[in-house]
Amino acid sequence: MKKYEIMYILKADLDDATRKAQIEKLHGHLTKSGAKITKVNEMGLRDLAYPIKKMTKGYYVVIKVECESAEATKEFDRLSKIDSNVLRFLITVDQD
How far apart are CA 50 and CA 54, in angstroms? Predict the structure, then answer.
């Protein structure tokens, strides 16, 4: 199984219920595609290094994922690009 680390930043102005629903939706895309989420680290609200879409803060989430093929991460990539609540995301192969 290949291991990945995914970091994404959500808009800071989302209320708690909307943010939790957004996180569940993003994680659901991965699990529906056959990936297994092994660790979730919600880092919380932080300042951005530079403004993104006129925002200076974002809600950071880092997850560890295991999957057989890269299809799950490709689908996450595609859906995150079109989601207006996701400011940025990064998918890396985990070396652990």
Answer: 9
